[in-house]
Every structure is written in structure tokens, then in C-alpha cells.
Amino acid sequence: MNKQQWFLIDGDSSYKKAIHRYEELRESKKNTPEYREMMLLAFLINKYENTKWLSFEMDPVEIIKIRMEEFGYKASDLAKEFGDKGTVSKVLNYKKPMSLNMIRLFHKMLRIPTDLLMKEYELS
Known about the structure:
Blueprint: H1 12-25, H2 33-54, H3 60-71, H4 75-82, H5 85-92, H6 100-110, H7 114-117
């Protein structure tokens, strides 16, 4: 068991450690110390991400592209999860707005706050 003490996440290094540990604990059973640690990490990660992302004035598609790069994802990876390569391509190329299902997927897969994904942006 990891004896790491967790504090507020204050930078990329502690953020990456928290994400890594969260992924290790993701399947923890309720009412265990591991589950409580996972819930604490979810809170800390969410707080850090919201603080970091709220400082940006970017449109949702640019935020998606940045997060794809950070996670090492390609459009085809998103398409596998969404099920439609053409729609993902159109969204990433500003040809089509995101659907509610897509916003949910990007929120979950790329850990982007939904309020940032719901911002209006121009289509080409």
C-alpha cells in the first residue's frame, strides 16, 4: 500500500503523480483505505484542473487538442471511444459542433471540465 500523504496539487509534477496513483486505485472497493485515497485524489485532481483550465481563454476544440497531446491521443483514439471517426474529425476541424454525448466523452476521457467544453466557438 502506498503511504503517500496528499496535499493540494501545486504543479505538473505532483499532478502527474496524483493521476498515476488515481489510475492505480481506480478499481478500489468501497469502504477501503484505497477507495478513500482514490476519492481524495479525484477531489484534488479536479480542483487543480479547474484552477489550471479556468485561466485559459481558449475555445473548446483547442483545449481538446492540447489535452490529446498531453495524453498522447490521436483523433483515431477518440473515434474508437466515440464510434464515429468522421464526426470526431469534423469537430476537430471546426466543421461540426460537439454533441452532448461528445462533451461527456471528452470530459471523461480527457478530464476537461464540462463548462469549458460547452463554451461557444466559431465553425468554419
